[in-house]
Amino acid sequence: xxxxxxxxxxxxTLKPAYxxxxxxxxxxxxxxxxxxxxxxECRTKDKKVSFYAYDFKNQVTLLHNFKFDDxxxxxxxxxxxxxxxxxxxxxxxxxxxxxxLAFDLQTKKIIWQNFSISAQLFCNDGIIIFDTKILPRKYRxxxxxxxxxxxxxxxxxxxxxxxxxxxxILPSMTEAKDIIDTTYLLTFNNLNICSYYQKKGxxxxxxxxxxxxxxxxxxxxxxxxxxxxxxDTFFVWHNHLFYIKNKxxxxxxxx
Length: 255
Fold this sequence. Notes:
Helix content: under 10%
Shape: elongated
Strand content: over 45%
Largest sheet: 5 strands, antiparallel
CATH topology of the largest domain: Lipocalin
């Protein structure tokens, strides 16, 4: 189910931006810094994988419950300038990455793929890869748009490259012995954003709360019947607050 929430006019009320729910559990979220696109991966108990993407700059849904025709073992790796990069795996039971596939989010088409390489690093200059069949590893720099080689690299060259960055802002954690006393706090644009735990009978629930000048603007439950501390609480990116609700829904507000 996809819900695009209309803005509200009260200046002292948070303005909802986007919400979408998947049938399984949100497994991974990646961000396109230049295009302001968020991409997330959802997995069900029977290992079915689907993909979602939303363009915050143009307020357009790019992917919703998208699946490839072939049931490949793919996971989202990186998204840059509107191109989503997937990696494969050596086998159904192995976490070791193998293969790269570049997918255009606008056209919904694969623009190149190579299942004999693995990515070492996504950087501004290109993708540093190595051939999984060759030992010792020989590194190459390939182009984002075509997958074609730009240059060969020595091991010593790798230190000259830096991975892609984004402007995500994460909360600071107030660590405590008891889960009830553990909180996450982020101050942004005169807002105090906090996630915390409360007992509900014998169970523990997790909440998020947003305050401004001592006034509570929003309180919502994040997870029910928590068994352990959750580290994936919330973050701010390009003036949007994001959090995952009940592990199945991503929610965003303007902040």
